[in-house]
Amino acid sequence: MSSTFINLTYLVASALFIFGIRGLTHPRTAVRGNILGATGMLLAIIATLLDQQVFGAGTQALVWIFSGVILGATVGATLALRIELTAMPEMVALLNAFGGGASALVAGAVLVSDNDPSSQTTIATVASGIIGSVTFWGSVVAFDKLRGLLLPDQPVIFPGQQVLNGLLAITALGLGIMVVNEPATLSFYVGVVVVASLLGILLTIPIGGADMPVAIALLNSYSGLAAASTGFVLSNNILIITGSLVGASGIILTTIMCKAMNRSLLNVLVGAIAEGGGTKADADDVYAGRVKSTSAEEVAMLLDGARRAVIVPGYGLAVSQAQHQVRDLANLLESQGVEVEYAIHPVAGRMPGHMNVLMAEADVPYDKLREMDDINPTFEQTDVSIVIGANDIVNPAARNDPSSPIAGMPILNVDQSRTVIVIKRSLSPGFAGIPNPLFAADNALMLFGDGKQAVLKLITAVKEASS
To answer: Cα-atom radius of gyration of the chain, to the nearest Å?
Structure first.
């Protein structure tokens, strides 16, 4: 197959990747973007197989390759169909791990098979080995923490941790130099992988569950950089382009999440975003008998006289799968002349876009999903805000208490509404592990219960109140 045809196919695949990523930035075009990206990947795989003359390499080679394709496609399709949206961060962590691990293994295989590798190949191999190993083990730790299997959700910290991380990084680089100087000595590359693997674990264990989505976004960027490095090892343009796109988009996402959670990008890079800053208030002091419980019937009476209502979806809504019921409630209120909008915090749920996907799944019009910066100025003109399963993203301590662990974190200013209805199972804290003064505010009422069941009761009460 001519190199011109292969490169042209790679160019088309690259364009599809770019348009696919562009499509993923908007819920209305996300499905199309996903299809474009998948089509681009299919073209890239076919072109690579043709370029390496795999189809003429014999039956045994084809059996191995297509067995891997079928196995991978089966596992991927099964996970995609069965995974809950609330578990998507864990899924992303595993995908990052697979990408990083594959990059390190492929680069090592090239080093073994190439009798006289160039400097570009050995340098790129070292980069792929370090970044890929850090990505693999860091992502495995992230997955384990989110699933609560072996490691605790809380940060794991010990004295001299950052110093040890620095020594490991220097050691990995030193071994990498030895790989470049003596590529035939495979033990040096094995050493790079082992040390980088340990570094990946130690960079991730000090990160708590609340900050883990930020770490996963960064690991996603790392997986792209590892793939790009492996592209240089293989002299494969499409892998370089694809890896660069993933690396760039991952670091942009990490920056967005750092801003939304008031975290430092530098601290994320060195694994130093463990929770612990600020003073955690005592729940008894914050609530102290000031929490007011309500019923669906009372909330229906409040909504009966409302002109504007804002719904704030959170992680609890995702867990209870209440998005369809929330849509039905909004439609019912709109049929009674109430203006209804949705306030979307950038990190509501577990990943950016989590709430957008949930609401899109329930066919909520996208123009009703208002971003935090757009809707915050309107809360003072809002009659009723209904918070469903959200906690830290509506905690006014972030704005009012400089000593709070979440001080400075941008929040939705729902406490400025005339009335706030909070639907939650209990007064349990969010990921930050701190009480929420909103629950005890004078204008706040707590409707305790499962999100879906509470909304269903609310729908019934609103219908009865209007009949």
So the answer is: 25
Q: What angle do CA 7, 10, 15 make, to 5 degrees?
A: 130
Domains located in the chain, CATH noted: 3-269 (no CATH), 283-466 (3.40.50.1220)
Say which residue the tokens 């003359």 belong to.
53
Identify which has the larger pLDDT, 75 or 258.
Answer: 75
Strand-pairing partners, residue 311, are 342, 386
Helix, strand, or coil here: 322?
A: coil
* Residue range 9-44, pLDDT digits in tens: 999 999 999 999 888 877 778 889 999 999 999 999
User: What is the C-alpha to C-alpha distance for residues 49 and 45, in angstroms, rounded to an integer?
Assistant: 6
Residue 208: CB partners within 8 Å, gap ≥ 6?
Answer: 153, 154, 155, 274, 275, 431
Which pLDDT score, from 0 to 100, does residue 141 have? Answer: 93
Reply yes or no on whether the pLDDT at 432 is more than 80. Answer: no
The residues annotated as belonging to the active site are 392
Burial of residue 71, with CB atoms counted within 10 A of its CB: 0-12 exposed, 13-18 middle, 19 or more buried: exposed
For residue 312, which of 384, 390, 417 has the smallest C-alpha distance? 390
User: Tokens 């474009």 appear where?
Assistant: 36
Which residues neighbour 396 within 8 Å (Cβ) at sequence distance 6 or greater? 411, 413, 415, 436, 437, 438, 441
235: DSSP letter: T
In 305-352, DSSP assigns E strands to: 308-313, 339-344
Q: In whole angstroms, how far apart are CA 13 and each of 18, 54, 77?
A: 9, 20, 22
Residues 126-137: what's their mean pLDDT? 96
Indicate if the pLDDT at residue 205 is higher than 80.
yes
Beta carbons within 8 Å of 5's beta carbon, 6+ residues apart: none
Cα 2 vs. chain centroid, distance in angstroms?
40
pLDDT of residue 383: 95
By three-state DSSP, how is residue 7 classified?
Answer: helix
Q: Residue 56: phi, psi to the nearest 5?
A: -110, 15
Q: How far apart are the C-alpha atoms of 402 and 281, rounded to whole Å? A: 12
